[in-house]
Amino acid sequence: MGKQILVVDDSAAIRQQVGLALAQAGFEIIEAADGNEGVSAVDQHPSIAMVISDVNMPNMNGLEMVSAIKKKPANKALPILMLTTEGQPSLIKQAKAAGAVGWIVKPFNAGQLVATVQKLTA
C-alpha cells in the first residue's frame, strides 16, 4: 500500500482525476469535499503523507484549511500542494505564508502532478 494522499476539492470530477493519476502511481487516496472535511481527514488519518487542495470551496476554503492544519504542531512538516484554477501571485503568496509548499494551476498535467507528489513525499 502506497503513501496516503488527501485530495480536497469540491469538484468530484477533479478529485477523481487527481485520485486516478496518483492511484496509478501507487498512492492511496483519501478524499474530502471542502476545507472542513480536509481538516477532519488530517485529524483522523495521522498517516497522511501529503494534502492536495483546491482554493475555492464552500464552507472552508483551501487557504483557511491550510492555516487550520498547520496550526497543529503535528502537521508542521505535512506538505500541502494547492491545485486550483487561480493563478494570482497574491493568492500564491497567501498560500505559501499559510504553509502550502507548492501551487499547480488547473487544468493540470497528470505526469507533472505525480512527479511533484513523489518528490514532496520522498
Characterization of this structure:
The protein has one domain: Rossmann fold, CATH 3.40.50.2300. A five-stranded parallel β-sheet has the order 2-1-3-4-5, sandwiched between helices. It is 44% helix and 20% strand. The protein has five helices and five strands; from the N terminus they run E-H-E-H-E-H-E-H-E-H. It is of the alpha/beta class and 122 residues long.
Topology:
Elements: E1 4-8, H1 12-24, E2 28-32, H2 35-44, E3 48-53, H3 62-70, E4 80-84, H4 89-98, E5 102-105, H5 110-121
Parallel strand pairs: 1-2, 1-3, 3-4, 4-5
Helix pairs in contact: 1-5, 2-3
Question: What is the molecular shape?
Answer: globular
- CATH homologous group name: Response regulator
**What string gives the helices and strands in order?**
EHEHEHEHEH
Radius of gyration: 13 Å
Strand arrangement within the widest β-sheet reads: 2-1-3-4-5
Main beta sheet strand tally, sense and closure: 5 strands, parallel
Structural class assignment: alpha/beta
Which bin fits the share of residues in helices? 40-55%
- Could you say what the CATH topology is called? Rossmann fold
Number of strands: 5
Number of separate structural domains: 1
